[in-house]
Design a protein that fits this description.
The complex is a heterodimer of chains A (170) and B (343). Chain A is 49% helix and 8% strand. Chain A has 170 residues and is mainly alpha-helical. In chain A, a hairpin with a 2-residue loop joins strand 1 and strand 2. In chain A, helix 6 packs antiparallel against helix 7. The longest helix of chain A is centred in the last third of the chain and has 21 residues. Chain A starts with 12 loop residues before the first strand and ends with a helix. Chain B has 343 residues and is of the alpha+beta class. Chain B has two domains: 229 residues, Creatine Kinase, Chain A, domain 2 (2-Layer Sandwich); 87 residues, no CATH class. Helix content of chain B is 48%, strand content 16%. Chain B is built from 13 helices and ten strands. The radius of gyration of chain B is 21 Å and the shape is globular. The mean pLDDT of chain B is 92. Classes of the chains: A mainly alpha (170), B alpha+beta (343). At the A-B interface, helix 5 and helix 6 of A face helix 5, strand 6 and strand 7 of B. Chain B: It comes from Anaerobacterium chartisolvens. Chain B: Belongs to the ATP:guanido phosphotransferase family.
Protein backbone atom coordinates (compact mmCIF):
# COMPACT_ATOMS: atom_id res chain seq x y z
CA UNK A 1 0.00 0.00 0.00
CA UNK A 2 1.28 3.45 -0.93
CA UNK A 3 1.60 6.24 1.63
CA UNK A 4 -1.54 8.39 1.50
CA UNK A 5 0.43 11.59 2.00
CA UNK A 6 3.28 11.45 -0.48
CA UNK A 7 1.84 8.75 -2.70
CA UNK A 8 5.41 7.62 -3.35
CA UNK A 9 6.79 5.45 -0.58
CA UNK A 10 5.29 2.35 1.00
CA UNK A 11 2.99 2.97 3.95
CA UNK A 12 4.22 1.41 7.18
CA UNK A 13 2.53 3.51 9.88
CA UNK A 14 -1.15 3.52 10.77
CA UNK A 15 -2.02 7.04 11.89
CA UNK A 16 -5.22 7.91 13.73
CA UNK A 17 -6.21 11.44 14.57
CA UNK A 18 -9.29 12.48 16.53
CA UNK A 19 -10.33 16.11 16.27
CA UNK A 20 -13.71 17.23 17.58
CA UNK A 21 -14.81 13.60 17.82
CA UNK A 22 -14.04 13.16 14.14
CA UNK A 23 -11.74 10.29 13.47
CA UNK A 24 -9.28 10.41 10.58
CA UNK A 25 -7.28 7.32 9.73
CA UNK A 26 -4.30 7.29 7.44
CA UNK A 27 -1.62 4.97 6.28
CA UNK A 28 1.69 6.78 6.03
CA UNK A 29 5.32 6.04 5.27
CA UNK A 30 7.77 6.62 8.09
CA UNK A 31 9.02 9.93 6.78
CA UNK A 32 5.55 11.42 6.32
CA UNK A 33 4.48 10.14 9.72
CA UNK A 34 7.41 11.93 11.29
CA UNK A 35 6.65 15.16 9.44
CA UNK A 36 3.02 14.83 10.30
CA UNK A 37 3.88 14.42 13.94
CA UNK A 38 6.08 17.48 13.83
CA UNK A 39 3.37 19.60 12.31
CA UNK A 40 1.05 18.45 15.07
CA UNK A 41 3.42 19.17 17.89
CA UNK A 42 4.41 22.56 16.58
CA UNK A 43 1.71 24.46 18.45
CA UNK A 44 3.86 27.60 18.60
CA UNK A 45 3.21 28.41 14.97
CA UNK A 46 0.25 30.76 14.68
CA UNK A 47 -2.78 29.11 13.21
CA UNK A 48 -3.42 31.19 10.13
CA UNK A 49 -6.75 32.26 8.76
CA UNK A 50 -6.13 30.01 5.78
CA UNK A 51 -5.75 26.95 7.96
CA UNK A 52 -9.00 27.72 9.72
CA UNK A 53 -10.80 28.35 6.47
CA UNK A 54 -9.64 25.18 4.86
CA UNK A 55 -10.60 23.51 8.12
CA UNK A 56 -14.12 24.81 7.68
CA UNK A 57 -14.12 23.43 4.19
CA UNK A 58 -13.42 20.05 5.74
CA UNK A 59 -9.81 19.64 4.75
CA UNK A 60 -6.76 19.58 6.95
CA UNK A 61 -4.05 21.23 4.87
CA UNK A 62 -1.36 19.10 6.51
CA UNK A 63 -3.05 15.86 5.67
CA UNK A 64 -4.13 14.60 2.29
CA UNK A 65 -7.10 12.35 2.76
CA UNK A 66 -6.70 9.24 0.69
CA UNK A 67 -10.20 9.67 -0.69
CA UNK A 68 -10.90 10.49 -4.30
CA UNK A 69 -11.23 14.23 -4.95
CA UNK A 70 -14.82 15.51 -5.09
CA UNK A 71 -16.37 15.91 -8.50
CA UNK A 72 -14.00 17.55 -10.93
CA UNK A 73 -15.80 20.87 -11.25
CA UNK A 74 -13.78 23.88 -12.26
CA UNK A 75 -14.36 27.51 -13.18
CA UNK A 76 -14.13 28.24 -16.92
CA UNK A 77 -13.22 31.90 -16.42
CA UNK A 78 -10.19 31.57 -14.14
CA UNK A 79 -9.44 27.84 -14.14
CA UNK A 80 -9.98 27.41 -10.40
CA UNK A 81 -10.77 23.80 -9.48
CA UNK A 82 -12.78 22.82 -6.42
CA UNK A 83 -9.72 21.06 -5.07
CA UNK A 84 -7.71 24.29 -5.36
CA UNK A 85 -10.51 26.26 -3.72
CA UNK A 86 -10.57 23.80 -0.83
CA UNK A 87 -6.81 23.95 -0.46
CA UNK A 88 -6.44 27.74 -0.61
CA UNK A 89 -9.83 28.81 0.74
CA UNK A 90 -9.90 31.59 -1.87
CA UNK A 91 -12.00 32.22 -4.98
CA UNK A 92 -10.32 32.95 -8.32
CA UNK A 93 -12.97 35.21 -9.84
CA UNK A 94 -16.58 36.27 -9.51
CA UNK A 95 -17.77 33.31 -11.63
CA UNK A 96 -16.36 30.83 -9.09
CA UNK A 97 -19.29 31.73 -6.83
CA UNK A 98 -21.69 30.28 -9.40
CA UNK A 99 -19.52 27.30 -10.27
CA UNK A 100 -19.10 26.18 -6.65
CA UNK A 101 -22.48 27.43 -5.53
CA UNK A 102 -23.74 24.13 -4.12
CA UNK A 103 -20.81 23.98 -1.73
CA UNK A 104 -21.03 27.54 -0.47
CA UNK A 105 -24.22 27.68 1.59
CA UNK A 106 -22.88 25.71 4.57
CA UNK A 107 -19.52 27.51 4.43
CA UNK A 108 -21.10 30.98 4.54
CA UNK A 109 -23.49 29.87 7.23
CA UNK A 110 -20.55 28.82 9.41
CA UNK A 111 -18.48 31.90 8.65
CA UNK A 112 -21.18 34.54 8.82
CA UNK A 113 -24.24 32.84 10.28
CA UNK A 114 -26.06 33.92 7.17
CA UNK A 115 -26.19 33.22 3.46
CA UNK A 116 -27.78 36.40 2.13
CA UNK A 117 -26.53 39.95 1.58
CA UNK A 118 -28.61 42.76 3.09
CA UNK A 119 -26.12 45.63 2.83
CA UNK A 120 -25.72 48.27 0.15
CA UNK A 121 -26.02 47.49 -3.54
CA UNK A 122 -24.13 49.20 -6.35
CA UNK A 123 -25.96 52.10 -7.96
CA UNK A 124 -25.58 50.48 -11.37
CA UNK A 125 -26.92 47.08 -10.23
CA UNK A 126 -29.59 45.68 -12.51
CA UNK A 127 -33.10 46.96 -11.91
CA UNK A 128 -34.06 43.37 -11.08
CA UNK A 129 -31.71 43.32 -8.09
CA UNK A 130 -33.03 46.69 -6.97
CA UNK A 131 -36.69 45.81 -7.24
CA UNK A 132 -36.11 42.49 -5.43
CA UNK A 133 -34.51 44.40 -2.59
CA UNK A 134 -37.37 46.91 -2.63
CA UNK A 135 -39.93 44.10 -2.42
CA UNK A 136 -38.08 42.53 0.52
CA UNK A 137 -38.18 45.86 2.33
CA UNK A 138 -41.87 46.34 1.60
CA UNK A 139 -42.67 42.84 2.88
CA UNK A 140 -41.03 43.73 6.19
CA UNK A 141 -43.10 46.91 6.35
CA UNK A 142 -46.22 44.94 5.49
CA UNK A 143 -45.63 42.57 8.41
CA UNK A 144 -45.10 45.48 10.75
CA UNK A 145 -48.30 47.20 9.61
CA UNK A 146 -50.29 44.00 10.13
CA UNK A 147 -48.83 43.59 13.61
CA UNK A 148 -49.82 47.18 14.37
CA UNK A 149 -53.28 46.44 12.96
CA UNK A 150 -52.85 49.31 10.51
CA UNK A 151 -54.76 47.52 7.76
CA UNK A 152 -55.19 50.55 5.55
CA UNK A 153 -51.43 51.00 5.26
CA UNK A 154 -50.97 47.24 4.86
CA UNK A 155 -53.31 47.24 1.87
CA UNK A 156 -51.37 50.08 0.32
CA UNK A 157 -48.08 48.24 0.74
CA UNK A 158 -49.61 45.01 -0.57
CA UNK A 159 -50.62 46.79 -3.78
CA UNK A 160 -47.18 48.28 -4.15
CA UNK A 161 -45.57 44.86 -3.80
CA UNK A 162 -47.96 43.48 -6.38
CA UNK A 163 -47.11 46.26 -8.85
CA UNK A 164 -43.37 45.79 -8.38
CA UNK A 165 -43.62 42.01 -8.76
CA UNK A 166 -45.57 42.39 -12.00
CA UNK A 167 -43.01 44.86 -13.34
CA UNK A 168 -40.25 42.45 -12.46
CA UNK A 169 -41.91 39.62 -14.40
CA UNK A 170 -42.08 41.82 -17.49
CA UNK B 1 3.32 62.80 6.69
CA UNK B 2 -0.35 63.01 7.55
CA UNK B 3 -1.33 64.85 10.69
CA UNK B 4 -3.91 62.27 11.68
CA UNK B 5 -1.32 59.88 13.05
CA UNK B 6 -0.26 62.52 15.51
CA UNK B 7 -3.49 64.32 16.34
CA UNK B 8 -5.43 63.07 19.27
CA UNK B 9 -8.95 62.09 18.38
CA UNK B 10 -12.09 61.43 20.46
CA UNK B 11 -11.58 58.99 23.39
CA UNK B 12 -7.85 59.21 22.78
CA UNK B 13 -7.04 57.93 26.27
CA UNK B 14 -7.92 54.44 25.05
CA UNK B 15 -8.59 54.61 21.31
CA UNK B 16 -5.57 55.17 19.09
CA UNK B 17 -7.25 55.06 15.69
CA UNK B 18 -10.29 53.94 13.70
CA UNK B 19 -10.26 52.34 10.29
CA UNK B 20 -12.80 51.11 7.77
CA UNK B 21 -12.01 49.26 4.59
CA UNK B 22 -14.15 47.99 1.75
CA UNK B 23 -13.19 45.12 -0.55
CA UNK B 24 -14.32 45.49 -4.16
CA UNK B 25 -13.60 43.63 -7.40
CA UNK B 26 -14.12 44.17 -11.11
CA UNK B 27 -16.72 41.83 -12.52
CA UNK B 28 -14.84 41.36 -15.79
CA UNK B 29 -11.41 40.39 -14.48
CA UNK B 30 -10.32 37.35 -12.42
CA UNK B 31 -9.25 38.23 -8.88
CA UNK B 32 -5.62 39.41 -8.52
CA UNK B 33 -4.15 35.98 -7.70
CA UNK B 34 -5.41 34.76 -11.11
CA UNK B 35 -4.49 37.85 -13.13
CA UNK B 36 -1.74 37.81 -15.71
CA UNK B 37 0.62 40.77 -15.93
CA UNK B 38 -1.27 42.41 -18.74
CA UNK B 39 -4.66 42.16 -17.03
CA UNK B 40 -3.11 43.39 -13.78
CA UNK B 41 -1.85 46.44 -15.63
CA UNK B 42 -5.30 47.07 -17.04
CA UNK B 43 -6.89 46.95 -13.57
CA UNK B 44 -4.37 49.57 -12.42
CA UNK B 45 -5.10 51.80 -15.39
CA UNK B 46 -8.87 51.51 -15.07
CA UNK B 47 -8.84 52.34 -11.37
CA UNK B 48 -6.55 55.32 -11.97
CA UNK B 49 -8.81 56.46 -14.78
CA UNK B 50 -11.92 56.11 -12.59
CA UNK B 51 -10.35 58.24 -9.87
CA UNK B 52 -8.38 60.85 -11.81
CA UNK B 53 -11.05 61.51 -14.41
CA UNK B 54 -13.86 61.64 -11.88
CA UNK B 55 -14.22 65.41 -11.56
CA UNK B 56 -14.25 65.03 -7.78
CA UNK B 57 -12.20 66.38 -4.88
CA UNK B 58 -10.68 62.91 -4.58
CA UNK B 59 -9.10 63.28 -8.04
CA UNK B 60 -7.10 66.30 -6.91
CA UNK B 61 -6.30 64.88 -3.50
CA UNK B 62 -4.73 61.50 -4.23
CA UNK B 63 -1.42 60.47 -5.76
CA UNK B 64 -0.59 57.14 -7.34
CA UNK B 65 2.31 55.06 -6.09
CA UNK B 66 3.63 52.12 -8.08
CA UNK B 67 4.43 49.51 -5.43
CA UNK B 68 6.88 47.63 -7.66
CA UNK B 69 9.00 50.75 -8.01
CA UNK B 70 9.56 51.13 -4.25
CA UNK B 71 12.57 49.82 -2.37
CA UNK B 72 11.99 47.47 0.60
CA UNK B 73 12.36 50.22 3.21
CA UNK B 74 9.84 52.46 1.46
CA UNK B 75 7.39 49.57 1.22
CA UNK B 76 7.87 48.58 4.84
CA UNK B 77 7.37 52.14 6.02
CA UNK B 78 3.99 52.19 4.23
CA UNK B 79 3.12 48.96 6.03
CA UNK B 80 4.15 50.47 9.35
CA UNK B 81 1.79 53.38 8.73
CA UNK B 82 -0.97 50.87 7.88
CA UNK B 83 -1.31 52.46 4.44
CA UNK B 84 -0.67 49.16 2.73
CA UNK B 85 -0.91 45.59 3.94
CA UNK B 86 2.11 43.30 4.18
CA UNK B 87 0.43 41.27 1.41
CA UNK B 88 0.49 44.23 -1.00
CA UNK B 89 4.11 44.99 -0.19
CA UNK B 90 5.20 41.45 -0.97
CA UNK B 91 2.91 40.07 -3.64
CA UNK B 92 5.13 41.12 -6.55
CA UNK B 93 2.12 41.68 -8.81
CA UNK B 94 1.11 44.74 -10.78
CA UNK B 95 0.00 46.54 -7.67
CA UNK B 96 -0.47 50.14 -6.71
CA UNK B 97 -1.64 52.55 -4.10
CA UNK B 98 -3.71 55.71 -4.32
CA UNK B 99 -3.09 57.83 -1.30
CA UNK B 100 -4.55 61.13 -0.17
CA UNK B 101 -2.39 64.04 0.92
CA UNK B 102 -3.41 63.72 4.57
CA UNK B 103 -2.92 59.92 4.36
CA UNK B 104 -6.42 59.28 5.67
CA UNK B 105 -7.46 57.62 2.43
CA UNK B 106 -5.54 54.76 0.92
CA UNK B 107 -6.81 52.68 -1.97
CA UNK B 108 -4.84 49.50 -2.53
CA UNK B 109 -4.99 48.10 -6.04
CA UNK B 110 -4.46 44.39 -6.75
CA UNK B 111 -4.04 43.33 -3.17
CA UNK B 112 -6.04 40.17 -2.46
CA UNK B 113 -8.96 41.96 -4.12
CA UNK B 114 -8.73 44.42 -7.00
CA UNK B 115 -9.64 47.25 -4.67
CA UNK B 116 -9.26 47.79 -0.97
CA UNK B 117 -10.66 51.19 -0.10
CA UNK B 118 -9.40 52.21 3.31
CA UNK B 119 -10.04 55.28 5.47
CA UNK B 120 -8.30 55.97 8.76
CA UNK B 121 -8.94 58.53 11.48
CA UNK B 122 -7.40 59.22 14.86
CA UNK B 123 -9.32 58.23 17.97
CA UNK B 124 -12.84 56.87 17.95
CA UNK B 125 -14.28 57.91 14.58
CA UNK B 126 -15.38 54.69 12.90
CA UNK B 127 -18.62 56.11 11.56
CA UNK B 128 -16.78 59.01 9.92
CA UNK B 129 -14.36 56.54 8.39
CA UNK B 130 -17.31 54.52 7.08
CA UNK B 131 -18.97 57.62 5.60
CA UNK B 132 -15.81 58.58 3.75
CA UNK B 133 -15.29 55.01 2.50
CA UNK B 134 -18.87 54.90 1.30
CA UNK B 135 -18.46 58.15 -0.65
CA UNK B 136 -15.37 56.84 -2.41
CA UNK B 137 -17.22 53.60 -3.17
CA UNK B 138 -20.13 55.56 -4.68
CA UNK B 139 -17.73 57.51 -6.84
CA UNK B 140 -15.93 54.39 -8.10
CA UNK B 141 -19.05 52.35 -8.75
CA UNK B 142 -20.24 54.98 -11.22
CA UNK B 143 -17.23 54.06 -13.37
CA UNK B 144 -16.46 50.45 -12.50
CA UNK B 145 -18.83 47.49 -12.79
CA UNK B 146 -18.20 45.74 -9.48
CA UNK B 147 -18.60 41.98 -9.00
CA UNK B 148 -21.89 41.72 -7.16
CA UNK B 149 -24.53 39.05 -6.73
CA UNK B 150 -28.02 39.45 -5.40
CA UNK B 151 -27.53 36.53 -3.04
CA UNK B 152 -23.99 37.12 -1.78
CA UNK B 153 -23.53 40.87 -2.27
CA UNK B 154 -20.05 42.11 -3.19
CA UNK B 155 -17.94 39.15 -4.30
CA UNK B 156 -14.45 38.92 -2.86
CA UNK B 157 -11.48 36.62 -3.17
CA UNK B 158 -11.75 35.40 0.41
CA UNK B 159 -15.10 34.04 1.66
CA UNK B 160 -14.56 35.92 4.94
CA UNK B 161 -15.12 39.26 3.19
CA UNK B 162 -18.18 38.62 1.01
CA UNK B 163 -21.41 40.56 1.30
CA UNK B 164 -20.60 44.04 2.44
CA UNK B 165 -16.83 43.61 2.05
CA UNK B 166 -16.49 45.83 5.08
CA UNK B 167 -13.95 45.58 7.86
CA UNK B 168 -14.41 48.18 10.59
CA UNK B 169 -11.71 48.28 13.22
CA UNK B 170 -10.43 50.29 16.14
CA UNK B 171 -6.99 50.19 17.72
CA UNK B 172 -7.19 50.19 21.49
CA UNK B 173 -4.56 50.67 24.17
CA UNK B 174 -5.53 48.33 27.01
CA UNK B 175 -2.86 48.25 29.73
CA UNK B 176 -5.44 48.04 32.53
CA UNK B 177 -7.07 44.95 31.11
CA UNK B 178 -3.70 43.32 30.49
CA UNK B 179 -2.32 44.11 33.98
CA UNK B 180 -5.37 42.67 35.70
CA UNK B 181 -5.58 39.69 33.37
CA UNK B 182 -9.17 40.54 32.47
CA UNK B 183 -8.11 40.84 28.85
CA UNK B 184 -8.46 37.07 28.48
CA UNK B 185 -12.15 37.17 29.29
CA UNK B 186 -12.65 40.12 26.94
CA UNK B 187 -10.92 38.30 24.12
CA UNK B 188 -13.09 35.24 24.64
CA UNK B 189 -16.27 37.31 24.81
CA UNK B 190 -15.30 39.16 21.62
CA UNK B 191 -14.86 35.85 19.83
CA UNK B 192 -18.36 34.82 20.80
CA UNK B 193 -19.81 38.14 19.66
CA UNK B 194 -18.32 37.88 16.20
CA UNK B 195 -15.59 40.42 16.86
CA UNK B 196 -11.98 39.60 16.07
CA UNK B 197 -9.07 40.79 18.20
CA UNK B 198 -5.62 41.04 16.72
CA UNK B 199 -2.22 42.62 17.24
CA UNK B 200 -1.31 45.95 15.68
CA UNK B 201 -0.41 44.69 12.23
CA UNK B 202 -3.60 42.71 11.69
CA UNK B 203 -3.83 39.09 10.75
CA UNK B 204 -1.39 36.72 12.45
CA UNK B 205 0.33 39.48 14.37
CA UNK B 206 0.49 39.48 18.14
CA UNK B 207 -0.35 42.30 20.49
CA UNK B 208 2.68 44.34 21.51
CA UNK B 209 2.70 47.38 23.72
CA UNK B 210 -0.78 46.43 24.95
CA UNK B 211 -2.25 47.49 21.61
CA UNK B 212 -5.23 45.53 20.33
CA UNK B 213 -7.15 45.87 17.11
CA UNK B 214 -10.77 44.84 17.28
CA UNK B 215 -12.86 44.39 14.16
CA UNK B 216 -16.00 42.76 12.84
CA UNK B 217 -15.75 39.17 11.65
CA UNK B 218 -19.09 38.87 9.92
CA UNK B 219 -19.52 40.67 6.61
CA UNK B 220 -22.59 38.88 5.23
CA UNK B 221 -26.16 39.13 6.48
CA UNK B 222 -25.76 42.47 8.25
CA UNK B 223 -25.98 46.01 6.96
CA UNK B 224 -22.86 48.17 6.92
CA UNK B 225 -24.36 50.53 9.50
CA UNK B 226 -25.18 47.64 11.81
CA UNK B 227 -21.65 46.31 11.52
CA UNK B 228 -20.13 49.73 12.25
CA UNK B 229 -22.48 50.23 15.22
CA UNK B 230 -21.71 46.73 16.50
CA UNK B 231 -17.96 47.35 16.59
CA UNK B 232 -18.54 50.79 18.12
CA UNK B 233 -20.72 49.36 20.89
CA UNK B 234 -18.30 46.62 21.82
CA UNK B 235 -15.39 49.05 21.70
CA UNK B 236 -17.29 51.46 23.98
CA UNK B 237 -17.81 48.75 26.57
CA UNK B 238 -14.14 47.78 26.46
CA UNK B 239 -13.17 51.46 26.80
CA UNK B 240 -15.35 51.83 29.92
CA UNK B 241 -13.88 48.66 31.46
CA UNK B 242 -10.37 49.84 30.72
CA UNK B 243 -10.94 53.25 32.32
CA UNK B 244 -12.47 51.70 35.40
CA UNK B 245 -9.59 49.25 35.84
CA UNK B 246 -6.96 51.96 35.40
CA UNK B 247 -8.56 54.05 38.11
CA UNK B 248 -8.96 51.04 40.38
CA UNK B 249 -5.37 49.88 39.94
CA UNK B 250 -4.15 53.35 40.80
CA UNK B 251 -6.46 53.61 43.81
CA UNK B 252 -5.40 50.26 45.23
CA UNK B 253 -1.71 50.95 45.18
CA UNK B 254 -0.83 54.44 43.97
CA UNK B 255 2.89 54.22 44.86
CA UNK B 256 3.43 50.97 43.01
CA UNK B 257 1.38 52.18 40.04
CA UNK B 258 3.19 55.51 39.73
CA UNK B 259 6.55 53.91 40.40
CA UNK B 260 6.10 51.59 37.41
CA UNK B 261 5.17 54.51 35.17
CA UNK B 262 8.01 56.77 36.35
CA UNK B 263 10.56 53.97 35.99
CA UNK B 264 9.43 53.30 32.43
CA UNK B 265 9.53 57.02 31.65
CA UNK B 266 13.01 57.28 33.09
CA UNK B 267 14.34 54.49 30.90
CA UNK B 268 12.39 55.70 27.88
CA UNK B 269 13.74 59.22 28.08
CA UNK B 270 17.35 58.40 28.86
CA UNK B 271 18.18 55.13 27.11
CA UNK B 272 21.08 55.17 24.64
CA UNK B 273 20.19 51.85 23.01
CA UNK B 274 16.62 50.67 22.77
CA UNK B 275 14.98 47.86 20.80
CA UNK B 276 11.61 48.27 19.11
CA UNK B 277 10.02 45.71 21.43
CA UNK B 278 11.28 47.43 24.54
CA UNK B 279 10.23 50.85 23.35
CA UNK B 280 6.68 49.61 22.70
CA UNK B 281 6.46 48.29 26.25
CA UNK B 282 7.73 51.55 27.69
CA UNK B 283 5.51 53.68 25.45
CA UNK B 284 2.53 51.79 26.84
CA UNK B 285 3.45 52.81 30.40
CA UNK B 286 4.28 56.38 29.41
CA UNK B 287 1.02 56.72 27.52
CA UNK B 288 -0.85 55.42 30.53
CA UNK B 289 0.97 57.94 32.72
CA UNK B 290 0.05 60.79 30.37
CA UNK B 291 -3.58 59.72 30.07
CA UNK B 292 -3.90 59.60 33.84
CA UNK B 293 -2.17 62.90 34.41
CA UNK B 294 0.71 61.25 36.28
CA UNK B 295 3.37 62.33 33.79
CA UNK B 296 3.15 65.95 32.73
CA UNK B 297 5.04 68.18 30.36
CA UNK B 298 4.89 66.08 27.22
CA UNK B 299 1.92 65.69 24.92
CA UNK B 300 0.14 62.66 23.54
CA UNK B 301 0.87 64.10 20.11
CA UNK B 302 4.62 63.91 20.76
CA UNK B 303 4.24 60.32 21.90
CA UNK B 304 2.20 59.45 18.79
CA UNK B 305 4.89 60.97 16.61
CA UNK B 306 7.59 58.99 18.40
CA UNK B 307 5.57 55.81 17.99
CA UNK B 308 5.47 56.33 14.25
CA UNK B 309 9.10 57.35 13.83
CA UNK B 310 10.75 54.55 15.78
CA UNK B 311 9.38 51.67 13.73
CA UNK B 312 12.22 49.85 11.95
CA UNK B 313 11.56 51.02 8.38
CA UNK B 314 10.34 54.53 9.22
CA UNK B 315 13.49 54.93 11.29
CA UNK B 316 15.72 54.04 8.36
CA UNK B 317 13.71 56.30 6.08
CA UNK B 318 14.32 59.21 8.45
CA UNK B 319 17.99 58.31 8.73
CA UNK B 320 18.20 58.13 4.95
CA UNK B 321 20.24 54.94 4.98
CA UNK B 322 19.98 51.22 5.65
CA UNK B 323 20.83 50.55 9.28
CA UNK B 324 21.72 47.27 10.99
CA UNK B 325 19.78 46.23 14.11
CA UNK B 326 22.35 47.71 16.54
CA UNK B 327 22.53 51.00 14.66
CA UNK B 328 18.73 51.13 14.62
CA UNK B 329 18.56 50.70 18.39
CA UNK B 330 20.98 53.59 18.90
CA UNK B 331 19.18 55.79 16.37
CA UNK B 332 15.85 54.94 18.00
CA UNK B 333 17.03 56.08 21.42
CA UNK B 334 18.35 59.27 19.82
CA UNK B 335 15.01 60.06 18.14
CA UNK B 336 13.14 59.50 21.39
CA UNK B 337 15.42 61.83 23.34
CA UNK B 338 15.26 64.43 20.59
CA UNK B 339 11.49 64.43 20.49
CA UNK B 340 11.24 64.53 24.29
CA UNK B 341 13.79 67.37 24.24
CA UNK B 342 16.09 65.71 26.76
CA UNK B 343 19.78 65.05 26.24
Amino acid sequence: MLCQRCQKRNASVHFTQIINNKKTEMYLCEQCARENEKSDINMGAPLGLNDLLTGLLGINPNVHMGEAAPEQIHCEKCGMTYEEFQRTGKFGCSDCYEVFEQKLGPLFKRLHGSTGHVGKIPGNASSEIKSTREIEKLKELLNKSIQNEDYEKAAEIRDKIKRLSEQKLK
Amino acid sequence: MGRWYIDKGPESDVVISSRVRLARNFRKYPFPSKLDKEQGGRVLEEVKDAVFNSNSTLAGDVTFIDIKALNPIEKQSLVEKHLISPELAENGRESGLLISRDEKISIMINEEDHLRIQCMFSGMQISDAWKLCNNIDLLLESKIDFAFSRQYGYLTCCPTNIGTGIRASVMLHLPGLVMTGYIKGILEACGKLGVAVRGIYGENSYASGNMFQISNQVTLGQKEDEIVTGVTNIASQIIEQERMLRAELHRQNPYRFEDKIYRSFAVFSSARIISYEESLKLISDVRLGLDMGIIKGISIETLNEIMLLIQPASLQKTAGSVLGPDERDIKRAEIIRNKLKVN
